[in-house]
Task: structure prediction
Amino acid sequence: MAIVTNKLTKYYNTSVGCNDVSIEIGRGEIFGFLGPNGAGKSTVVKILNGLVIPTSGSAEIFGMPAGSLEVKKSVGYLPENFKYYDWLTGKQLLAFHASLHGMDKHLLKKRIKQLLKLVKLEAFEEKKIGTYSKGMQQRLGIASALLPDPDVLFFDEPTSALDPIGRKDMRDIMVDLKRQGKTVFLNSHLLSEMEMVCDSVAVIHKGSIIKKGKMPDILNSFITVEIRTEFTGDKIPHLIKERFGEVKLSKGKIRVKVDCDDDINDIARIIINNGGKLYGIICEKMNLEDLFISILEGG
Amino acid sequence: MMPVIKISFREAINKKVFLLIGIFTVIYLAGYALFIYFIMKDLDGGRIDNYSGFLAGASFISFVGYYFSSMLLAFLTIMLSAGAVSHDMESGIIQSTISKPLSRRSYILGKYLGLVLIISAYSIILFLSVTLISVMFKIPSLSGLKWDIILKSLLLFVLEPLAILSLSIFGSVFFKTLSNGIFLISVYITGLAGGMIEQIGGTIGNDTLVLCGIASSMISPFDTVYRKMIATLFSNIGIANPMFGIYGIQGAVPSMWMMAYVIFYSTLLLYLAVRKFRKKDL
Ligand SMILES: Nc1ncnc2c1ncn2[C@@H]1O[C@H](COP(=O)(O)OP(=O)(O)OP(=O)(O)O)[C@@H](O)[C@H]1O
Ligand SMILES: [Mg+2]
Result:
């Protein structure tokens, strides 16, 4: 395992940052962390980077305590509020960060050049950060996170300030990182993008994990079924409702959410056994966004 | 720690206030030189014919030079360092720094040492300039100065802002930048007032006042260092102690123990700053 947290809990003075968060992320995995605003995503990431001290619980990266000097050597982090000394140039900032990593002078120059090219800031490398746009600063932050060629990367909403091309670039960077066998921890609200790149996800709400798993399993765990049918009386909808909860009725159609493929069979049986006619079944697998909304609304 | 020392040093140099105070210092030194030039001409012109009066006047002038220099220095120190840590925390800059392989202790000490370098350099230049001007214009109280006295006074002159710096770093971990500025100025003024109270108490023989004064110089020992510096620098002139004048009374010279206390005080504050910072959520 690359990242393991064990009942990680953080209480701020007046609010709960996160509560009993236990997650495991395998090496080489891209992990997506989802949750509404204020759910506790950034809190967890900050704990994992040694910025926030947990109230209780523990976190390890490669078996060593998260936030320790040894671990920080092989970790890259783009904070949610990326902010840098505005009187430095982009190049100088990266040189400063590289020196914190104890990078060799010769190596450092080459690496900085390469990264500035990757995030498309070469033309601005000699300009003061104070003159950068928000998106340019975020790109610089991404470059800084990648600087030591770390094995684990934390990106806290890495595309919040990026234009559509920047977002695509970021996606490519993540796919490339995965190809290199790096572990990536991604906080984001852009669920369609997450769906494209993540191997596993966890959903956090009000500080607690309410759902976690591999991406395909999670997506398959919620299926909406639309049934074309004909029946008389209330019995059929009533029975389906009893078994599956929420049911939406419209002319000749029943829509219902089920958890697995076997449930579809059960619905068909209910309809036929109670004198209804079954004309068709359409299964809609949810995308991550629908899933997210239905988890949070359905509780 | 070295990268943080460097960045802290460069950050201070990049501040507008540094340039501003640099320009002001040049004007101040030029003004001071002119001031001395005219006064010495007057004094030499025989308007004061009693020699000890002349001596007192002349040393008072040079004393004024050091007095305002030390204030300027205190001001510069506060302006450069009040936000040393708090600004990085308020802006979020600290998140990208501390997440790099850097211990929290190294961060604080690096910030501190970077400022130590710049403030020491500035202090030394200021001290030597003021001393040079005084010597150039043949202020008698300073003309026969020995090197060891100059060196000792210089060390004390540098010690004062460095003690303020420790308090500032301490405050910067606990408070927001603006609050820290107010905190520092309050403590600094407490020390000035305490020094005065102590001396008045000493002169009129009021023990309570003396005690109050001592208590405030425990909290704010900066003025004490300054007084020690002046006493050391002017130790060769018995007749015209330059303490005479600014407070209107003869002051006691702070002991060497007091200087040891100042070093202990600075170290303790730094230690407390590191300790607090270790447990901070950033
Ligand atoms: N420094 C702090 N002091 C007090 N409470 C805090 C602090 N930082 C975060 N919180 C609280 O902790 C909770 C989780 O915040 P966090 O920033 O982790 O959320 P998030 O999931 O990252 O949200 P977002 O999507 O808006 O970035 C929130 O209720 C927030 O109010
Ligand atoms: Mg967040």
User: Anything to note?
Assistant: Chain A touches chain B at residues 12, 46, 49-53, 69, 72-73, 75, 77, 79, 81-85, 87, 96-97, 99-102, 141, 144 (CB under 8 Å). Residues 164-179 of chain A form the longest helix (16 residues). Chain A has eleven helices and 15 strands.
